[in-house]
Write a structure and sequence with these properties.
The complex is a heterodimer of chains A (about 700) and B (about 120).
Chain A lengths: L1 H24 L7 H20 L3 H18 L7 H22 L6 H19 L7 H4 L17 E7 L11 H11 E8 L17 E8 L3 H7 L9 E5 L9 H9 L3 H10 L3 H7 L5 H20 L6 H26 L3 H30 E3 L1 H4 L2 H12 L3 E6 L4 E3 H22 L3 H6 L6 E10 L2 E8 L6 H10 L11 H6 L20 H12 L3 E7 L3 E9 L4 E9 L2 E6 L3 E8 L3 E4 L3 E6 L2 E7 H4 L10 E9 L2 E7 L1 E9 L3 H4 L6 E6 L5 E5 L1 H10 L6
Parallel strand pairs in A: 6-8, 13-22, 17-19
Antiparallel strand pairs in A: 1-3, 1-4, 2-3, 5-7, 8-9, 9-11, 10-11, 12-13, 12-20, 14-18, 15-16, 16-17, 18-19, 21-22
Chain B lengths: L3 E5 L3 H13 L3 E5 L2 H7 L5 E7 L7 H10 L8 E5 L4 H10 L3 E4 L4 H11 L1
Parallel strand pairs in B: 1-2, 1-3, 3-4, 4-5
The chains are: A alpha+beta (about 700), B alpha/beta (about 120).
Chain lengths: ~700, ~120
């Protein structure tokens, strides 16, 4: 089987490549039907093969893509740029699936989430009509008729199959097909001879038969499709799942099953039904435009309602309910233990219950948070292709590197970040990057680099867009700011202040406005969105070296893995992510340089020592011959922080200091410890900045 | 009498694998090395199924299907083509020529029997 698997991977990879190439070459204004067929077939092939060679996860995911593409190639759904984007993401996921399957490993959690999200989006999109329909046609949506497909609650499929005209001449055994289908479950079929031509025009070797089939089965769709493999020609086979258990099937389904009304008759009857809007128009009670407007309003309201809710799988909720059930039991165990008179037994019961409680609370926390959290990759994943295409359009060589895609963000944040990030990345490519000639002339590599980086530190999520382009031009910004009246003549703003001016409404330094980045209207919107999320923007730029734009977002509700330490009489929390190690050192290991700066030599590297007690203004550090040092790293720099005691590791809930007090350099937030006391969470990079400036915290 | 199947392939390894699999499933098997040979062997055999490779010397599988369909004896006989790629164009070519279905290479013995059972 091994050689089959290799072949499968190679082929599937090629198919995924071809899907991507086809998608990218699509002209959305004039889509070639053949391209849509190609896309569909590629998805179909991957699905089929994946099933054959034992990769059900790939098969089921590709199936979603396939069924999304089905109405598209039949012209029932428009290929929009959004849809193209979603399918491109799907192609990436297929690749990732293949990569992991090749190594016999499951798809990583993060990508499973991306997949779930994508699948949900594909399905959501399906619910709303994406083909732009003219108003009178839109009014034709059946008024409360429900689905026209004939089925009734249960698992299985409703199938419409029109045999290919050449079926007999190709030696197709239709009887065999029905026998195979019947093997999958309970079969019920209604032959439809309506496609038969008049007798004088009938060629007895042509097949004109069609069937409406209702198959109750637990087999997956793939098995059903397999049966039709040699006779499926796209439009002639439509397979729809029977509605899930719990949903109410339309009346037609009951009639079909109980009164044996054929699906063809039900379809005919349904076609006679008219939507409310159309009837009212016919009655002359309302103008078609008014109906169109009303429908628009209804659609708008529906979108709003959807946007303000989160779809959560019932399984997730079930798991939560179960967990709460378990918690109740644990509570009962604890109560029992507290009444136990035998101390030995009581202790044993107590510790068992506490252990359980520990696991349950952790799981509960993770799952509750997990409901809303999605990886930032959901936004990032669109950028490699975008940068590549932009670069090509503009004749620039640009490479995009990404880091920290697994960083999780609240779903709302992700949604609100899509536009700002897209804008910033576009800006980097369009304005930030020089063209090849300019780069080479400046002695830079012709290939420009944009780095996207997400990380979570302290109570903040950092998203950085860093390019090695031309950097912000101070003089130009200054001049523009004066022209626009954003600065008073004679003002001498600092670089930081000046850089932030690019986010002012109506600011743009590019004389030749390209159609890509627009006219500077975007940057102030970027800032608005980031502010709306309670975040801020930082800009670092050096002329000729590049620009870094950093979005700093709060992560309220965030839980942090922390290392609690004691400094003097206070407890502080280091984010565990920035702690490399901790060790004890002798005073003689610490050397003093430049008068008052201390460094320690660690494995051949000199690392600055930061006396937290002094830095945090907790009085002068007592001469401690055996200092405890915590080695931390942030933004690529390291420092050894001297503390008095290591108290332990624990998860802490981050509370914003800014909300309750004010922003303090070196402190990223506060938390409440188990004993009710407040501990401050240290911002390692802030502390390093403080130490460099030799200032002290003013709190 | 068990049904008789003609297998056409220029690779003897492939023919052996197919023959072995089909015989162990109680089918009679006749072999041919290419399209020309197949047209010589086939008549009068009361074939239940013909399985043919596509790329073969002298006469390829697609032409063979067309030629077989032109013979009254094989007008409605199920014919499967072995395609090396799941590339839809080859399946379509086979279909247009009159093939009943296809088996995508590489395939396992189980898959072969599964497809065979689908058409006869």
């Amino acid at each position: 089987m091994a050689q089959f698997r290799t072949a499968f991977f190679e082929e599937a990879t090629e198919l995924a490549d071809s899907m991507e190439a086809t998608l990218l070459s699509l002209d959305l204004q004039a889509v070639e039907v053949e391209d849509l067929h190609t896309l569909f077939r590629a998805a179909h092939s991957i699905k089929g093969n994946a099933g054959t060679f034992g990769f059900p996860a790939i098969a089921s995911f590709t199936h979603t893509l396939e069924s999304t593409l089905e109405p598209v190639r039949q012209g029932q759904r428009a290929m929009t740029s959004d849809l193209r984007e979603l399918i491109l993401q799907g192609v990436d996921l297929i690749r990732s699936h293949l990569h992991h399957a090749r190594n016999d490993e499951p798809l990583p959690e993060r990508e499973q989430q991306s997949q779930a999200l994508l699948v949900a989006r594909l399905k959501e999109d399906k619910d709303t009509p994406t083909v732009p329909v003219p108003v009178p046609a839109a009014a034709k949506a059946p008024a409360g008729s429900g689905s026209s497909s004939a089925h009734r609650a249960g698992t299985g499929f409703s199938i419409r199959f029109e045999a290919p005209q050449d079926a007999f001449r190709r030696g197709v055994n239709l009887e065999r097909l029905f026998r195979d289908l019947a093997k999958l479950g309970t079969l019920r079929s209604w032959p439809d001879a309506s496609r038969l031509p008049a007798l004088e025009r009938l060629d007895p070797e042509d097949c004109h038969l069609a069937w409406d089939i209702r198959l109750e089965t637990t087999h997956p769709l793939q098995d059903v499709e397999e049966v039709f493999e040699f006779v499926a020609e796209g439009e002639n086979l439509r397979i729809q799942p029977l509605p899930a258990e719990g949903s109410v099937p339309p009346l037609g389904d009951y009639l079909q099953v109980d009164a044996n009304v054929s699906p063809a008759d039900i379809r005919e009857a349904l076609a006679k039904q008219k939507p409310l809007g159309e009837i009212l128009v016919d009655m002359g009670k309302v103008k078609p435009e008014a109906v169109g407007k009303a429908l628009e309003q209804q659609a708008k309201k529906r979108t709003q309602a959807e946007a303000s809710t989160v779809r959560v799988a019932t399984e997730k909720i079930d798991r939560l309910v179960n967990l709460v059930g378990e918690l109740v039991i644990t509570q009962a165990m604890l109560a029992q233990a507290s009444q136990q008179t035998n101390t030995m037994v009581a202790e044993e019961q107590m510790s068992a219950a506490l252990l359980q409680l520990d696991r349950q609370t952790r799981e509960l926390q993770e799952r509750v948070m997990g409901i809303r959290m999605v990886p930032v990759d959901m936004v990032f994943s669109r950028f490699p292709r975008m940068v590549h295409e932009l670069g090509r359009q503009l004749g620039k060589d640009v490479e995009l590197t990404m880091e920290g895609q697994a960083t999780e963000l609240d779903k709302t944040f992700i949604e609100m970040l899509v536009d700002p990030l897209t804008h910033l990345v576009r800006n980097s490519v369009d304005h930030g990057m020089e063209d090849k000639e300019t780069r080479l002339a400046a002695g830079k590599p012709s290939m420009g680099t944009i780095a996207l980086r997400a990380s979570s530190r302290g109570g903040h999520i950092y998203i950085e867009i860093k390019d090695d382009g031309r950097g912000l031009n101070r003089d130009k910004i200054l001049q523009k700011a004066l022209e626009r009246g954003l600065l008073q003549p004679g003002a001498t703003p600092s670089d930081d202040e000046l850089h932030l001016l690019i986010f002012e409404p109506g600011f743009s330094t590019v004389e030749q406005v390209s159609d890509l980045s627009g006219r500077g209207v975007g940057m102030d919107v970027v800032r608005q969105n980031v502010r709306a999320l309670g975040g801020r923007i930082e800009v670092e730029s050096q002329v000729g070296r590049g620009t870094t734009i950093r979005l700093v977002l709060p992560l309220t509700l965030a839980i942090l893995d922390g290392l609690t330490v004691r400094v003097a009489d206070e407890t502080y929390v280091f984010p565990l992510a920035s702690v490399l190690e901790s060790f004890q050192c002798k005073d003689e290991d610490v050397q003093t340089v430049k008068g008052d700066r201390e460094v320690i030599s660690l494995r051949g590297e000199f690392i600055p020592v930061v006396r937290l007690q002094r830095l945090l203004a907790l009085g002068t550090a007592q001469a401690n011959s055996r200092a405890l040092l915590v080695l931390v790293e942030a933004e690529g720099r390291r420092a050894a922080m001297a503390v008095d005691e290591l108290l332990g590791q624990q998860q802490v809930v981050i509370k914003s200091l800014e909300t309750h007090y004010k922003r303090v350099e070196g402190i990223s937030g506060a938390t409440i410890l188990g004993d009710g006391r407040v501990a401050l969470i240290l911002d390692v990079s802030g502390l390093m900045r403080l130490e460099a400036g030799a200032a002290t915290v003013e709190a | 009498m068990s049904p008789c199947i003609l297998t056409v392939d220029d690779s003897s390894t492939m023919r052996q694998m197919i023959t072995f699999t089909l015989k162990s499933a109680n089918f009679e098997v006749v072999e041919a090395g290419d399209g020309v040979e197949a047209l010589e062997v086939a008549p009068g055999k009361k074939l239940a199924l013909i399985i043919t490779d596509v790329n073969m010397p002298r006469m390829d599988g697609i032409t063979l299907v067309q030629r077989l369909r032109a013979l009254p004896e094989f007008r409605f006989t199920p014919i499967l083509v072995l395609t090396t790629e799941s590339d839809a164009s080859m399946k379509m070519k086979g279909k247009e020529a009159g093939a009943t279905g296809w088996i995508v290479k590489p395939f396992s013995p189980e898959k072969l029997l599964e497809v065979v059972n689908k058409v006869i």
